[in-house]
Amino acid sequence: MEISYKRDVKISLKSSFTQSERNAQIRVVCGPMFSGKTKTLIRVINEYKTLGKKVFVFKPKIDDRYAKDSIVSHDKDETSAFNVNRPVEILDYHLNADVIAIDEVQFFDDSIIDVCNTLTNNNKTVICAGLDLDYRGLPFGPMPKVLAIADEIIKLNSVCTFCSGPARISHRITQETEQVVLGEKEKYVPLCRSCYAELK
Ligand SMILES: [Zn+2]
Questions:
Q1: Is 176 marked active-site?
Q2: Which of 55, 124, 135, 178 could form a Cys-Cys staple with 172, CB 3.0–4.6 A?
Q3: Which structural domain, as residue segments, surrounds residue 111?
Q4: For residue 133, is it left (φ>0), alpha (ψ between -120 and 50) or beta?
């Protein structure tokens, strides 16, 4: 009797999930500055919206270069976004969402890992975008761990300022030495591996 009871429970649990509610994924878009990360993120967000999915977008409060309540790509594609100080705040919003998109993930601390895992365990698709490397070419913030837990990784290149080769480093052209210095083309140029090595 007990065995058949357990078997019934197992079958009924399995059949209560549809395929789309299972195996939610963590998708990550990474690369240097000016590689189209945010543009790609906005494109994926719009694809999910076209499918009728509810998408909530988040970004760390630190990043207000373009707009306070939105994410904006360098060529001015835009979508609205919640600003949060800490990754755990994302969990306050997630119940009504099908998809959670997070931009500039490198500025969060390692608690973003638990948040991404919690969201996917609750069948929310998570799409993260961020810089994989800092201005010295070293892994940026929580990105190595975010990439480790990802199901899918899209790694973009920019175009090297000197040789037009595939750029992977956001080289800082000012003297500031902190890891986080917000800026655009007045502070950063994308460089390939060879040109960066020649500069050092
Ligand atoms: Zn180059």
A1: no
A2: 135
A3: 23-156
A4: beta
Q: Which two tokens stand for residue 93?
A: 């919003």
pLDDT digits (tens, 9 = 90+) for 84-99: 999 999 999 878 899 9
Q: What is the pLDDT of residues 47-92, one digit of tens each?
A: 999 999 999 999 998 866 555 677 777 766 777 888 999 999 999 9
* In a domain? residue 41: yes
The domain total for the chain is 1
Vertex 33: Cα angle to 115 and 142 (nearest 5): 25
Does a structural domain hold residue 51? yes
DSSP 178: S
CATH code: domain of residue 132: 3.40.50.300
Whole-number Å distance, alpha carbon 129 to ligand 1 midpoint, is 24
Going from the Cα of 198 to the center of ligand 1, the distance in angstroms, rounded, reads: 9
